[in-house]
Amino acid sequence: MGLFPDSPTMNSLAIHPLPNQRQGRLMLALIVVLLALPFAIGAGLYFGGWQPPRSGHHGHLLTPPLRLADLFPHPKGASFGARSTEKNAEKWKLVLHVRGPCATECTSRLDEMRRIHVALYKNMGRVSRAVLTDQPDDPVLLALHASQPDLMVLTIPSGALSEITDPVLLVNPQGLVIMSYPPDASPQGMRADLDRLLKYAWTS
């Protein structure tokens, strides 16, 4: 018989960990799981073929940008700096370039641009809309301007902007065409580009 004889209590302490030890092990296991979880999720997404959504712009970026004022040869002609458009000179501009009469596709695109403009909500005041046309007496455009006074109808020479085939242009407050959109460009993409630009363009 030893100094401390075996007893049920001593055997229980030797076999079963103390409550504090169990809590420590559980905490360690939880930490290991939390550290490994992001890697497990990332591996699952990668091997499952998931791709992150596109975060770039949705239009065609012009490099270098085109100065729109250079298209107006006469100082008294319609331009973003003229008196009739002075209040819009320092705004971002969503512009439709129309060649010839404004037909069904033209009016549909202008209505789409108006809805994009309205969807900007609190940023509406930082953006204006315009039409570039070589037919300033087009009755359709004159009627649209009458019903939408904030829509600018600007005249450019026939054949201007021949280097840009896309109909919709995005112009910065400095009067530079920085991006263009093809006929099949989605309104959601154009609005996303405007939202991103307006978010980071603190000076306009």
Provide a descriptive summary of the structure in words.
The chain has 204 residues and is of the alpha/beta class. It contains 5 helices and 6 strands. It has helices at residues 8-15, 19-47, 104-119, 139-147, 187-200; strands spanning 60-67, 92-98, 127-133, 151-155, 168-171, 176-181. The protein has a 6-stranded mixed sheet with strand order 1-6-5-2-3-4, covered by helices on one side. The longest helix has 29 residues, at 19-47. The model is unreliable at 74-84 (pLDDT under 50).
Given helix and strand content, the structural type is: alpha/beta
Percent of residues in beta strands? Answer: 15-25%
Report the sheet with the most strands, covering strand number, pairing sense and barrel closure: 6 strands, mixed
The helix content is 25-40%
Number of strands: 6
Shape: elongated
Tally of individual helices: 5
The ordered string of helix (H) and strand (E) elements is: HHEEHEHEEEH
Order of strands in the sheet with most strands: 1-6-5-2-3-4
Rg over alpha carbons: 32 Å
Low-confidence stretches: 74-84
**Residue-averaged pLDDT, rounded?**
78
Task: List the SSEs and their pairings.
Elements: H1 8-15, H2 19-47, E1 60-67, E2 92-98, H3 104-119, E3 127-133, H4 139-147, E4 151-155, E5 168-171, E6 176-181, H5 187-200
Parallel strand pairs: 2-3, 3-4
Antiparallel strand pairs: 1-6, 2-5, 5-6
Helix pairs in contact: 3-5
Concise synopsis of the structure shown:
The chain has helices spanning 8-15, 19-47, 104-119, 139-147, 187-200, and strands at 60-67, 92-98, 127-133, 151-155, 168-171, 176-181.
